[in-house]
Design a protein that fits this description.
- By secondary structure, the protein is mainly β.
- The protein folds into two domains: 2-140, Cysteine proteinases (Cathepsin B, Chain A, Alpha-Beta Complex), CATH 3.90.70.10; 155-282, Jelly Rolls (Sandwich), CATH 2.60.120.380.
- 11% of the residues lie in helices and 40% in strands.
- It is built from three helices and 16 strands.
- It has helices at 15-30, 72-78, 127-133, and strands at residues 2-6, 34-38, 60-69, 82-89, 112-113, 116-117, 123-126, 136-140, 155-163, 185-202, 210-218, 232-235, 239-240, 243-261, 268-276, 280-282.
- The longest helix has 16 residues, at 15-30.
- The chain is globular, with a radius of gyration of 22 Å.
- The protein starts with a strand and ends with a strand.
- 22% of the residues are buried.
- Belongs to the peptidase C2 family.
- One of its GO terms (cellular component) is cytoplasm.
- Residues 1-143 form the Calpain catalytic domain.
- Keywords: Hydrolase, Protease, Thiol protease.
C-alpha cells in the first residue's frame, strides 16, 4: 500500500504537529515500511544539483529518525536541548548533503550527540532542514497480517464495490446529500483508540477516475445507511490515480467510510482494503 505525504500541506512549524509527524515516521519505520523522499521539480530539472549538494527529482531513502538530547557543551551553539534528526541514504552513491550535521560540516565520523553515535550516518539532517529542502515522502506500507509474527500484525478486511450512474449521483462534497448515494461501509472500533489504514484502488478501465474517501462518526446504534451530513473524522486527498492511501487514528465507536469519485458521471469498480491494529468489525 502506497501513501504520498506532501510536506507543504502539513503545519510542521508548530512544535505539536512536528512531534506528531515524527512519531508517525518512527511508527512507519518500526513497522518496516519503506520511506523515500524527493525534491519535486519540473521534468527538465531532474538530476540537477539543489542547495547544499542534494539532487532534484532524486529518491533518497529514510532509514532512521531520532530525538537527540544535546550535550550541554553544544546546547548553547545549537540553541536547543533536543533535536529531531533524520538519517537518509543515497542509493546512487553520488553527491552528498553538505549542510549542517553532514560529514562535510566539520564533524568527525564518531561525533556524539547525547548518547547516539552517528558514525555510519552519511546523510544526517535536522528535521527543520529536511522539511525545508524536501517536497514529498512516499511510504510503502507492508501490511503484516500473520498471527505468528514478532512484528506488529494488522487485521485485514477487503471489500469490492462499484460506482454506477443508476440511482447514484457522484459528489465528493460532504455537505451535498448526493455523496450518500455512494457505497458505504460501517466500522466498529472496540478499543479505546486504534490506528487504521485504508487503501482504495480502482480497477483498470479506459481512464482513471479522480478518487478519494471520507470517514465520519455515527451513532453507535446505527444500523442503516447515512443520509444526512455529519462532521468528517477523516478525508483523503482526491487524485487521479490507480489507488489512494490514508491512515488515521479513531476512538472507540461506530464509523462510516464512503469511497467516492470527484466528478459526476464517473463509473467503475473498486476495491477497499482496511487494516486495523486491533480487532474491529466491518459491514
Amino acid at each position: 500500500m502506497a501513501e504520498k505525504v506532501i510536506l507543504s500541506k502539513l503545519s510542521l512549524t508548530e512544535p505539536k504537529e512536528k512531534l506528531i509527524f515524527y512519531r508517525k515516521l518512527k511508527d512507519d519505520l518500526d513497522s518496516h515500511a519503506l520511506l523515500t523522499c524527493i525534491i519535486d521539480c519540473p521534468m527538465e530539472q531532474i538530476g540537477t544539483r539543489a542547495n547544499q549538494g542534494l539532487i532534484k527529482g532524486h529518491g533518497y531513502s529514510i532509514n532512521k529518525v531520532m530525538r537527540i538530547k544535546m550535550d550541554k557543551g553544544l546546547q548553547g551553539e545549537v540553541g536547543l536541548g533536543e533535536l529531531i534528526m533524520i538519517r537518509l541514504s543515497n542509493p546512487w552513491g553520488t553527491s552528498e548533503w553538505t549542510g549542517p550535521w553532514s560529514n562535510g560540516f566539520g564533524i568527525d565520523d564518531d561525533f556524539k550527540m547525547g548518547s547516539a553515535i552517528y558514525a555510519l550516518a552519511r546523510l544526517r539532517m535536522a528535521f527543520g532542514d529536511f522539511v525545508k529542502h524536501f517536497s514529498n515522502i512516499d511510504i510503502s506500507h507492508l501490511g503484516n497480517t500473520s498471527f505468528f509474527s514478532m512484528k506488529k500484525s494488522w487485521q485485514e478486511s477487503i471489500f469490492h464495490g462499484e460506482w454506477n450512474v443508476s440511482g447514484r449521483s457522484e459528489d465528493r462534497e460532504i455537505n451535498s446529500n448526493t455523496v450518500f448515494s455512494n457505497p458505504q461501509y460501517m466500522l466498529d472500533i472496540g478499543s479505546l483508540q486504534d490506528k487504521i489504514m485504508v487503501s482504495l484502488e480502482q480497477h483498470d478501465g479506459l481512464k482513471l477516475n479522480e478518487i478519494g474517501f471520507q470517514i465520519m462518526k455515527v451513532e453507535e446504534n446505527r444500523r442503516y445507511r447515512v443520509h444526512i451530513s455529519r462532521k468528517l473524522t477523516y478525508e483523503s486527498e482526491y487524485i487521479q490515480s490507480r489507488g489512494i492511501f490514508g491512515t488515521t487514528e479513531l476512538k472507540k465507536g461506530r464509523y462510516v467510510l464512503i469511497p467516492t469519485t470527484k466528478d459526476p458521471g464517473d463509473t467503475g469498480k473498486f476495491m477497499v482494503r482496511l487494516y486495523t491494529g486491533n480487532k474491529a468489525s466491518w459491514k
